[in-house]
Specification:
Strand content: 35-45%
Number of strands: 34
Radius of gyration: 25 Å
Protein name: Peptidase S15
Shape: globular
GO molecular function, one term: dipeptidyl-peptidase activity
CATH class of the largest domain: Alpha Beta
Helix content: 10-25%
Largest sheet: 10 strands, mixed
Distance between the termini: 45 Å
Keywords: Hydrolase
CATH architecture of the largest domain: 3-Layer(aba) Sandwich
CATH topology of the largest domain: Rossmann fold
Amino acid sequence: MRTVTAFPFIVREDRHVWIPMRDGVRLAARIWRPERSDTAPVPAILEMIPYRQGDLTARRDSIHHPYLAGHGYAGLRVDLRGSGNSEGILTGEYLEQELTDAEDVLTWLAEQPWCTGRCGMMGISWGGFNALQVAARRPPGLDAIVTVSSTDDRYTDDVHYMGGCLLSDNLSWASTMFAYNSCPPDPAVVGDRWRQMWHQRLTGSGLWIEDWLRHQRRDDFWRHGSICEDYSAVTCPVLAVSGWADGYTNSVFRLLAHLSGPRKGLIGPWSHKYPHLGEPGPAIGFLQEVVRWWDHWLKDVPNDVMDEPMLRIWMQETVPPLTAYEDRPGRWVGEPSWPSPAIRCREHPLERNRVARSGEKVGVEELTIESPLSVGQFAGKWCSYNAPPDLPYDQREEDGGSLVFDTDAFTDRYEILGSPTVELELAASKPVAMIAVRLSDVAADGRATRISYGLLNLTHRNGHEDPEPLVHGDHYTVSVQLNAMAQALPPGHRLRVALSTSYWPLVWPPPEPVRLSVFTGSSRLVLPVRPVGEREEMALRPFDDPEGTPPIPVSQLVSGDERWTVSRDLVRYTSALEVVKDLGIIRFDDSGLEVARRAYERYSWVGDDFGSVRGETEWTVAFEREDWKASTTTRTVLTSSATDFHIHAELRAYESGQCVATHEWDRTVPRDLV
């Protein structure tokens, strides 16, 4: 990324700003704005997230908020209620209180003499979520949003459940927020009351994983904040962004298809990162694109931002299967609208070991599969949060425990854009079952790179609101939608469909092993095919190189550690996936604050004993300065029986090396056809 220091406007930073809410609670904010805004007001861009603007996101914030300010905007970074240095307690995701607070912040902005009253919201992940959700409330002054790595449907397309299946990332994410919610405010900002605020958080934030496990079907808990309940509520312009290695690409396509107001979609090769920091590359000049977007919608600049394609995506070329990539080869392509009238759906029947050609007749045959628990060891993360090494590895490692269907080798280049679907006629031996469907690009040498996948809890075959158990011997027709994708396949390569009855540890397995019967003749693969060479490609303005303001200086005092280890003991038949993300210790040079973060995850099992699966996470977060030292450790263990989930959680808080708070939880949550 190229750092920029010269801008049209000289920027001032207001580091510690308090914003009052209607109930008297104050939120902590940092503001970057042009110096001349005191006499020449500017529009404001709001980002509200719970990740501590004073330290944990300070370096990232320093790259793009001053950049926006240098182009004539006020960049406002607010800690959510109960996070960072803000007052109050944070007790859940996207609560009514959070959205009301956002409206209060927008009202406060409109009252500032340096703001024109025209505002946008921008954010990645949590900040992208609440930008969409606040937009659906249509508060005065919110004129446009940029939502990155977010979703319109909190149940079907978020970190908790996928296709009605419980994701292990539900545990991982709950553990992340368990750790973050336990962090203290900074005494240098809030003063002597930091300790009281800290202990309020330690006792009041709750155990979020329990809340999420008590809502295993799509109910009002998940409908809240899911703008898909009423797309028409969002009327302001929306720029929706994601990456193919991210977990949130599907929502970009749905937003473009269902919103009626001005909208644009952008999907690159990136993981869960802003595109100007995008990994895998190529990263792009995203901040330049954002400035053009805000110029058009908040300053009425007559640029051509809305004259370009509605959807711009990175068409990925074939790559060997690796858990991390520095760059993904490909090219930018555009579609003038979505759904695109140019995309053609091709139906391919499934027969034994083979994906037949479109229109080919195949016979009826019963194929059976009962997958070992080891299928899924090489699946990677549901979402590549940090880009490596959490991408799926060679799928041949998984295919031995799956039903596999291959196309013939392609004789011409073949491009897929959109969400493939696999339609299956099947029967199950048990009342609760799941199916995982993987789509892989198979090279001439046999290496298989997963390019998409989908999951379905078969008790949710008729919807996620009212699941129904399966009846042994009955036949069911189900449709499994795979994640959206853009993939080019060269001549000589094949597509592979692989079906499995488990996908652990990406997905929590069913209560007991299940044998599925899949019937050919009526089962098929439906591919959204983008024509190659049959139409003139849209002329695309090239993206600029990524740039931003110089990040604040930090010193790495203790190096970090990153590991992703799969192990198997062939004497005791124990297997495990262990993940370490240790950022070491860094010092913020301007404040002298030292911060340490370490996360450890372990997913284990014994043989094919479905009752042995276990997820365990441990977090340590520590803060230290010359006159202050505080840290927390958290631990969460999730296990299950055929009838229940079992949660054990621990929280320890330390001040100057002495334990000052201890909390433990033991909870049992009944399984609800999961």
